[in-house]
Design a protein that fits this description.
single chain, 12 helices, mainly alpha, disordered N terminus, about 350 residues, Methane Monooxygenase Hydroxylase, Chain G, domain 1
Length: about 350
């Protein structure tokens, strides 16, 4: 995000009013705290340079013949990450700056009652500017190619806006017109906040579930799916009555149950193939345990239990057949030994 001058954020008419010397000094001090992308880039460059020389010194001390290459690569990576994150960091910094300016205006109104009306107009313009910034970032997050995390970023900015405006509404110096304007902005921001939180939870959980399906190891599948559940739980803490979140959570729990059951069924099939029938029976019982304990649709639970039950009965029949065969062989061997002894 590029540099924003004060003309871009605040209307000229609002700033052109006559101010007292105390207000001018406070305004100058607040402008001094305005976020600057130049300062951000200078800090990022300084960090990259310090990292470059630090790594270069360590590599030279370690006897590396070409210390410039890894040190330069590390410094370049830091700069690339800083540049890619600059837009998000500066956008949020400007939004926070607007909200801090609003808080400053409220405290000034409490000190100087004579300029209540002009400060109310300035506060309303600040909230309007913050609302426009939020709407702009919301549109960018909804655009094609935007990352899932951009929706979470908008949610947090909306949260900051609502906190600031709630504090403003508690002030007794606001006019009726200003209160109506702020409440109207709050309704819009609450709608945007919910919209972006639900999109973040939906897209984030889908991406993690898809990743879990691609994993090879059972433990990795379950761990990744649990991260998807954590994503949905975070959204449910804010919107506990949202049915879409509950449905997504149920689907992921069913996926986790299917992974556990499939894991033990596969182990049982391997044991049966090797002729370890008793071990296969125990593993089928483990599969049945998870099928009955985990969240599974009733029709799938019934069908799975019937299939596992049939496999267990077949394996028990194999065990009985193997036992009779072993007993017959033992009896035959014993009779042969007795015959040999008699001879």
């Amino acid at each position: 995000m590029g540099n924003h001058s004060a003309d871009d954020v605040f209307p000229r008419s609002a700033r052109s009013n006559t101010r007292s010397s105390g207000e001018s000094s406070r305004r100058k001090s607040s402008r001094a705290r305005a976020p600057s992308s130049v300062g951000y880039l200078i800090i990022a460059g300084a960090i990259a340079v310090a990292l470059f020389f630090g790594l270069w010194w360590m590599l030279v001390s370690g006897g590396d013949e070409a210390p410039w290459v890894p040190a330069g690569l590390a410094a370049s990576v830091v700069l690339l990450v800083a540049l890619s994150a600059r837009e998000v960091v500066m956008r949020r910094a400007w939004t926070r700056y607007l909200l801090e300016q609003d808080k400053h205006e409220h405290s000034s109104r409490e000190i100087n009652r004579k300029s209540v009306s002009s400060k109310n107009m300035h506060s309303t313009s600040l909230h309007s500017a913050a609302l426009r910034a939020i709407q702009k970032q919301s549109a960018e997050a909804d655009s094609a190619g935007a990352s899932t995390e951009s929706h979470l970023e908008v949610f947090h900015i909306c949260q900051d806006y609502l906190t600031s405006t709630d504090e403003a509404l508690r002030s007794s110096s606001l006019t009726t017109e200003s209160r109506l304007a702020i409440r109207g902005g709050q309704e819009k921001v609450r709608s945007l906040q919910k919209h972006h939180m639900l999109i973040w939870a939906r897209d984030g959980s889908r991406a993690l579930t898809h990743e879990a399906q691609q994993r090879a190891r059972t433990s990795d599948k379950i761990e990744t799916a649990n991260r998807a559940l954590d994503c949905l739980d975070s959204a449910l803490k804010v919107y506990p009555d949202e049915p879409e979140l509950e449905q997504s959570k149920l689907a992921i729990r069913e996926f986790i149950a299917s992974v556990k059951v499939a894991h033990w069924v596969e182990l049982a099939e391997r044991s049966a193939f090797k002729g370890h029938y008793r071990r296969a029976i125990e593993r089928y019982k483990d599969a049945l345990f998870y099928l009955n304990r985990e969240t599974v649709k009733e029709e799938l639970r019934t069908a799975g239990a019937e299939r596992i039950g049939r496999e267990i009965e077949l394996l028990r029949a194999h065990v009985r057949t193997a036992g009779r065969t072993t007993a017959a062989e033992s009896s035959e061997n014993k009779g042969s030994d007795e015959t040999n002894d008699a001879r």
